[in-house]
Amino acid sequence: MSKLPNLEIILCAPRGFCAGVDRAVQIVELALQKYGAPIYVRHEIVHNKYVVDGLKNKGAIFVEELDEVEDTKAPVIFSAHGVAKSVFSEAKKFNMFYLDATCPLVSKVHLEAQKLHLQGYEIILIGHKGHPEVEGTMGQLPSGAISLVTDSFDAENIVIKNPDKVAYVTQTTLSLRDTTTIVRTLKSRFKNLKEQKKKDICYATTNRQEAVKQVAPDVDAMLVVGAPNSSNSMRLVEVAQRAGCKKSILIQRASDIDWQDFTNISSIGISAGASAPEVLVDEIITSFKLRYNISVSTQKFADENISFNLPKELREQAK
Q1: What structural domains and CATH numbers belong to the chain?
Q2: Nearest-CA neighbor of 176 among 150, 199, 146?
Q3: Does 14 sit behind a cis peptide bond, omega within 30 degrees of 0 on the bond before it?
Q4: Catalytic residue flag (residue 133)
Q5: In what order do the strands lie in the sheet with 76-78?
Q6: Is the Cβ–Cβ distance between 205 and 235 less than 8 Å?
């Protein structure tokens, strides 16, 4: 039997589930326990197929719009990404019982945008077009009150009615580097641009990106566990590549690994997006163990001990 090649695996920490994702998944699971199936969820509760499929198997039904809900007496849960105000209005029109799983940090951006609007500011949202979080944030305000900027080109060309009364907010899962570049462009155009005292990009996004920056320059390849429609996971791949690891790959789980990508390597880093459970990281390590003589270590950037309250309807169930 031939000897297995050696492989050093460095795990980035923190990685995987953030407090907002953990809360959202708990809301669905506790609602299923308390109310029984079916439970409807508008949009994927978080962007991860493994998580969504697991909840489907327990009795959750995922829909994109409320008019797809067949049993209007069943509870409906809004995803962690947040929804427009019109979705709440529609749920009330249908007399639906709903639970809001919006991440509290996304809700904070919603409140910021509403406050700025009431103060008379025209608002710029920095984010990715079509992302549900962006749609939810823009849906907090009347049409025309908030404009989307996706990159520096947009920032150079956006037309503002009153350049002296403009503010910006951001999607919570962006690349710190890209956002800084866009903000710099906006500041060069709008001298009185109003900023928030606390940045909108969430702690989990920042911590995961910084952990990847530490590991990426020292490994031959980087694996990021996450979904292609997960903004924060895609940003981790970009961060790793910019930090010096050109072979940085997004995979959803071990079965996605193309082993030809890992010939003649001696080290890999592994991170996971904020909606990817740790079980998928364990699965990947097990797959490498079958092909390599592995050593596993962890490189920690920060400790995370944040948690968010559950909706009052589910707190007793959680006990």
Answers
A1: 6-17+203-300 (3.40.1010.20), 19-102 (3.40.50.11270), 105-189 (3.40.1010.20)
A2: 199
A3: yes
A4: yes
A5: 60-63, 39-42, 76-78, 98-100
A6: yes
What mean pLDDT value characterizes the chain? 95
Q: Which two tokens stand for residue 286?
A: 């097990």
What's the sign of the alpha-carbon dihedral 148, 153, 159, 162?
positive
Of 20, 70, 68, give the one whose Cα is nearest residue 45: 20
What burial letters (b/e) apply to 89-121, b meaning 16+ CB within 10 Å? ebbeeeebebbbbbbebbbbbbebbeebbeeeb
Look-up: residue for tokens 């493994």?
A: 50
Q: 81 and 127 in contact (C-beta within 8 Å)?
A: no
Q: How far is CA 137 from CA 64, 114, 131, 145, in A?
A: 17, 10, 10, 11
What is the per-residue pLDDT across 121-157, written as a single tens digit (0 to 9) for each? 999 999 999 999 999 999 999 999 999 999 999 999 9
CA neighbor of 296 nearest in space, from 314, 282, 306: 282
**One-letter amino acid of 38:** P
* Residue in this structure with the two tokens 């699971």, named with its chain if needed: 29
What integer is the mean pLDDT of 35-39?
96
Q: Which of 29, 112, 133, 135 is catalytic?
A: 133
Q: Name the region of 144 (left: φ>0; alpha: ψ -120 to 50; beta: rest).
A: left
Dihedral in degrees, nearest 10, Cα atoms 193, 198, 199, 204:
-170
The pLDDT value recorded for residue 195 is 86
Q: Where are the beta strands (DSSP E) in the chain?
A: 6-13, 39-42, 60-63, 76-78, 98-100, 122-126, 146-149, 166-170, 221-225, 248-251, 267-272, 293-300
